[in-house]
Design a protein that fits this description.
By secondary structure, this protein is an alpha+beta fold. 25% of the residues lie in helices and 26% in strands. Strands 1, 2, 3, 5 and 6 form a five-stranded mixed β-sheet that branches. The radius of gyration is 21 Å and the shape is globular.
Length: 340
């Protein structure tokens, strides 16, 4: 189909489409329900010299008051079994599918995503950030990513290796940043349930609950997340706002000598991961408010708003937290949400 100007909505209010509830207005906005519809909209955007920008679940973006270009939102949500063997099953999931809903449905086919329950956002956004929680990253179960290169308007298929996944990072945040729209993701799920419960609270729970099911693991993950992370529909937030910083082993040992209780997690690349939430709490920011924003009282890693904050308010508390952690520990915190 050929996209027409009537498919584009002018001055679309985005306040309800981002979990920080920041006031924002898209100069141009459109939704698509198929790859052909998306391609048609992209051709129209090229004709009108509008920069395409994809908005997923709005949980990992920082929206300015006015968003230029053409904001696109996927309504593609189908799930398709591609193939399977004795051990695994390959499932293609379209980008507009709600992430948590997909995790729940994934149990019908296989296992591997349970620890990623209740993470806000869409399937299409999951590889960009390489979302992770409780010892599991989406890259562990991801086979490939399909999408459209904006520069050429050609369909592309990237293997797991080509996505160049790292901690909260991927090729989509580097070489392909602003030049790739994810349309679907292929997951490889294991038919046998082999849970990863090495993470502290999960380990203690698993020790007391032998032979638990995948649904019981999902329920426990949701319970742990809910006890620490506020529901964005109740308290506007973007989940964990800062990445857990990676430092050298020598640097980590020096910090441990000064702060014996600091949580440190050795990584396979020789680096050591520090707990950003602990650093922020020790810097005095847990539960502390600054204007219309605050760091959550139950989890210092979560930046929340009162529903009246704008982007400048978020920048103010972000910069203040980063400065205080840097001054006390010599560690530079990096935000997870990206400027849209």
């Amino acid at each position: 189909m050929k996209a027409t100007a009537s498919m584009i909505e002018k001055n679309k209010d985005l306040k309800g489409l981002n979990t920080l509830s920041l006031p924002a207005c898209a100069e141009n906005y459109a939704e698509f329900s198929s790859v052909s519809e998306l391609l048609s909209l992209l051709h129209l955007a090229k004709e009108q010299k509008l920069q395409p920008k994809v908005l997923g679940g709005g949980s990992n973006v920082l929206l300015p008051t006015t968003v230029s270009g053409l904001v696109l939102k996927s309504k593609m949500q189908s799930v398709q079994v591609l193939r399977q063997n004795q051990d695994d099953v390959w499932i293609k999931v379209e980008a507009g599918k709600n992430w948590h809903q997909w995790v729940l449905e994934s149990q019908q086919y296989g296992h591997g995503l349970e620890n990623l329950s209740l993470i806000p956002g869409t399937v299409g956004a999951s590889p960009i950030q390489n979302i992770g929680a409780y010892g599991v990253e989406v890259s562990d179960a991801l086979e490939s990513v399909q999408g459209i290169c904006l520069g050429s308007l050609q369909l592309m298929n990237l293997t797991n290796a080509e996505c160049r996944f790292a901690y909260r990072d991927s090729v989509f945040k580097r070489e392909l940043k602003n030049d790739f729209i994810v349309t679907s993701v292929v997951f490889r799920l294991a038919k046998s349930f082999q849970p990863n419960v090495a993470y502290g609270p999960l380990a203690s729970w698993a020790a007391d609950n032998e032979n638990f099911s995948s649904q019981q693991l999902i329920d426990q993950v949701c319970e742990i997340r809910s006890s620490k992370l506020p529901d964005p529909t109740d308290i506007p937030n973007a989940g964990s706002f800062f990445k857990n910083p990676l430092v050298s082993q020598d640097f980590a040992e020096n910090l441990q000598a000064q702060y014996p209780t600091i949580p440190c997690y050795p990584q396979i690349n020789g680096k050591v991961k520090l707990a950003a939430g602990w650093l922020i709490e020790q810097a005095g920011w847990k539960g502390k408010q600054l204007g219309n924003t605050s760091m959550h009282k139950l989890q210092a890693l979560v930046l929340t708003t009162n529903g009246y904050a704008d982007l400048n308010d978020v920048f103010s508390i972000r910069d203040a937290v980063v400065a205080d952690v840097r001054e006390r520990f010599g560690v530079e915190l990096e935000p997870e949400p990206q400027l849209f």
